[in-house]
Amino acid sequence: MNTNIFLQIYHDYSERIQSGEIAAGTKLPSENDLTREYGISRETVRKALQLLSENGFIHKIKGKGSFVLDLGRMNFPLSGLVSFKEMSERIGRKSQTIVYTTEHIPIPHAVARHLETDKHATVWQVIRARNIEGEKVILDKDYFRSDIVPLLTKEIASGSIYAYLENELDLQISYAKKVISVEDATAEDKELLDLKQYTHVVVVRNYVHLEDTTLFQYTESRHRLDKFQFVDFARRSPGEEK
Questions:
Q1: Which portions of the chain are predicted below pLDDT 50?
Q2: Is the pTM of this model over 0.85?
Q3: Of the four, 65, 91, 164, 215, which is 20 to 30 A from 198 by CA?
Q4: What residue stretches are annotated with the HTH gntR-type domain (predicted)?
């Protein structure tokens, strides 16, 4: 038997899920049922289900089974600090970064407040749209302190800025505070995003710190409402009361 039979199962189910034949929320057949259906070992079935899970097609719940995820929305983690390039590789969808602006400017008053820095400072402003499967659904507005990041180019901005900061500038990016809100779409949102009928966007404000606690980056990431859900993992500590 083909030792890659688990890939056949993966492709069978991923295609049926993407086509809508198997709807979001549907429970897949059990491991035992799939073992009998394909005439293979349970371990092979588990490899196929794990691959479906890793690529965002299903969610496995211990003791209950595997359930099809809503592919219309993409999961963005609340915890962790992940670049869009890293995230797009995880979600496995065709994506493109469109760079509108990469310029060295006097710090805007509102950004100076967010970065808690001198109003006479300068920053690198980077404005980018994220095109996912043919639609511009994220507008990222990044501001980097220029005393810490002395140079940014359009070429760097079209790839991974974090890879450049960490690998070329040797900056130790450590943690971020995130503030999430739903706000009215601005004229800029309407111009640079494919908002369709939506009049509001989800705004994620990131305050990013280096390992020495220096706040060096402020970002507004503006998301079309229908495309994203923000997820986190919470664990209850023993002894906590409701």
A1: 1-2
A2: no
A3: 91
A4: 3-71
